Amino acid sequence: MTDKKESKKKKSAPGESSKKRASNKRASKKYTPEKNGPESAEKSAAFPVVGLGASAGGLTALRELFSAMPDDTGMVFVVIQHLIPTQKSRTAELLQQKYTNLPVREVTEDIRVVPNYVYVIPPDRDLIISGAMLKVTEKRDPKGMHLPVDTFFTSLAKNYRKSAIGIILSGTGSDGTAGAQEIKAGGGVVFAQAPESAEFDGMPRSAIRSGA
User: Fold this and answer.
1) Segment 95-101 mean pLDDT
2) Which of 52, 120, 145, 190 could be cross-linked to 180 through a Cys-Cys bond (beta carbons 3.0 to 4.6 Å apart)?
3) Burial class (CB in 10 A: 0-12, 13-18, 19+), 36
């Protein structure tokens, strides 16, 4: 008799385990990147992130692009522009006041990105994206050539893969070309401004020639 009772008591254990498993399932839904760190590349790509690379003549190109952009695309826009290191940038201010209804923010500290926002690189710094976080970093090579578009595009390709979009606008040189190739290799999409419409065609022409 004792054995049978003990056997019955033991049979209740699986029911308890099921409840625990259900409770654990519910608990797993509470995961948030802010508390648990950045998600994987596949999970973090819940929305597309658009990197906009520009240099000389870039403000005019940005004005034309954002003036024609709907307010609710569901995308994040990150403007990476070549800026004079010792001067305060007015790019964020001008975009907000004149060219777009989207909220615009110059990134001076690490920040979580939100769709339908525009984020602008600060002077004398690099930006990278990790998961859903934009991070401000020191220039990779302070004494060498500063390539902020390549730096951001490379991190964008790594983190967002098929949800990464790179757009190269007016500018001199070839910054953005290597990063654009990374985006394309990861399954993302790259656009370049038509060279004949750019004030300075070096950057878009370089990207086009590379096949990115």
Assistant:
1) 93
2) 190
3) exposed
Beta bridge partners of 127: 136
**Interatomic CA distance for residues 123 and 91, integer angstroms:** 10
| Radius of gyration (C-alpha) of the chain in whole angstroms | 23
Query: Is the pLDDT assigned to residue 45 strictly greater than 80?
Result: no
Enzyme catalytic residues: 55, 82, 175
Q: Which two tokens stand for residue 91?
A: 């790019």
Q: Which has the closest alpha carbon to 83: 203, 204, 171? A: 171
Kindly report the length of the chain.
212
Query: And the tokens for 148?
Result: 């902020």
Strand-pair category, 111-112 with 133-137? antiparallel
Sequence letter at residue 208:
I
Q: How many CA atoms lie within 13 A of 103 on its CB side?
A: 9
Strand partners of residue 119: 78, 105
| Average pLDDT estimate for 72-80 | 97
The strand pairing partners of 25, in sequence order, are none
pTM of the predicted model, to two decimals? Answer: 0.78
pLDDT tens-digit map of 127-138:
999 999 999 999
Structure token digits, residue 31: 């995961």
End-to-end CA distance of the chain: give it in Å, rounded.
78
d(CA 15, CA 204): 64
Give, in order, the Cα–Cα distances in Å from 86 to each of 90, 120, 126, 195. Answer: 13, 17, 15, 29
